[in-house]
Design a protein that fits this description.
This protein has helices at residues 40-45, 84-89, and strands at 2-7, 10-15, 21-23, 28-29, 36-37, 47-48, 51-52, 68-71, 76-79. The chain has 93 residues and is mainly beta.
């Protein structure tokens, strides 16, 4: 279940099943495994046949990691290594 709170003028969301908190609608939280993703595409990539895959162990056909763990200042977020928009959205360089 997602809960919405207004904090300092920004919309913040949290999950009643874990301690994750995030802002904005670009990120996606999984109510099954309680991981937070940089967007719907990264979220969809971690789902297979209705089950969650461990983002830390997901690899492509060349054996490279598909997602990497980053921080958005409030929580850890799984993102594609090539997600340059992540840095722009959260003011990282």
């Amino acid at each position: 279940m997602l809960l919405s709170n207004t904090m300092k003028g920004a919309e913040m969301f949290s999950c009643s099943g874990c301690s994750n908190k995030w802002g904005g609608l670009a990120q996606a939280h999984c109510a099954g495994c309680h991981n937070l993703f940089s967007g719907v595409t990264a979220f969809d990539r971690h789902r297979s046949k209705g089950k969650c895959l461990d983002p830390a162990t997901m690899t492509n056909t060349e054996g490279e990691k598909v997602l990497e763990l980053r921080t958005n200042g409030a929580a850890d977020v799984w993102a594609f290594p090539t997600d340059v928009d992540f840095n722009e959205r959260f003011g990282r360089s």
